[in-house]
Write a structure and sequence with these properties.
Radius of gyration: 14 Å
Order of helices and strands: HHEEEEHHEEH
Distance between the termini: 30 Å
Strand order of the largest sheet: 1-2-3-4-6-5
Structural class: alpha+beta
Low-confidence stretches: none
């Protein structure tokens, strides 16, 4: 996904870069209707102008940001996948596999839940 090239080029660790590139490619493949852009120096996906999910990287993990509502809705699934979370992000340690089923559920939930949303963030 060309829009994410500059973000990916700034990730020093080649394994981390390949991992997040795989997740971004997967998201674009399974949800081709979503818009893509860089915001706050992070790759994000949108639907009809509303935020659906964003990603970022740190030394110890990849962060997935589906908004608090998604985290609350899938707290059990997130824990079963072995991921920690805060109100705003899910932390996927680099050594853990990506649970694409959980990721798919989060994205589908946000698309459906925000179908009538007219703002970028939930109110």
């Amino acid at each position: 996904m060309e829009v994410f090239t500059s973000f990916l080029e700034n990730i020093d660790d080649p394994e981390h870069r390949a991992r997040i590139e795989e997740v971004l490619d997967w998201t674009g493949k399974y949800f081709p209707q979503l818009g893509t852009r860089i915001a706050w120096n992070k790759p994000i996906f949108t639907d009809h102008g509303t935020f659906i999910i964003g990603f970022s990287v740190s030394k110890k993990h990849m962060a997935v940001a589906p908004e608090e509502a998604g985290i609350l809705r899938f707290t059990d699934e997130i824990a079963k996948a072995g991921y920690g979370h805060t109100k705003g992000i899910i932390r996927i340690p680099w050594e853990n596999p990506v649970n694409y089923d959980v990721l798919k559920q989060l994205i589908e939930y946000n698309i459906e839940d925000k179908a009538d949303c007219t703002t970028f963030w939930r109110k």
